[in-house]
Design brief:
mainly beta
Length: 117
């Protein structure tokens, strides 16, 4: 009789015998969420012809930097490994003006307005 009452109460309260066994619960996958990569343009406007980029929370190994002028033409293109937190590029060949800076890593994409004086 006690078993019958207990079964009835468990059924009414929403408990079922279809629960996952403890072995299945112990083997569930867990995911670690990494903070997103960050990029900071260290000098804008650029006055000395040196583009400096700083990266935080780096999870990538490679870096691709593209600079596009106001007409949409690619005027600078550089690929390298992302082995340091701060990356330096020589952009002294660029004329004064407003550009778009596109930075792609393995994990992230960034677009910023770049001013060269």
């Amino acid at each position: 009789m006690k078993i019958l009452i207990l079964s009835f109460l468990l059924g009414v309260l929403g408990f079922s015998s279809n629960a996952a066994p403890l072995e299945q619960i112990a083997h569930q996958e867990s995911y670690i969420v990494q903070p997103p990569e960050k990029m900071t343009l260290l000098a804008n406007p650029i006055k000395d012809g040196v583009l400096k980029l700083s990266f935080g929370n780096v999870q990538s190994e490679s870096l691709h930097v593209i600079i596009i002028n106001s007409l949409g033409k690619k005027v600078f293109d550089s690929k390298r490994s992302l082995n340091k937190q701060t990356q330096v590029f020589d952009v002294s060949a660029l004329a004064s003006g407003i550009y778009f800076l596109r930075v792609n890593t393995d994990q992230s994409n960034f677009v910023k307005k770049l001013i060269v004086q």
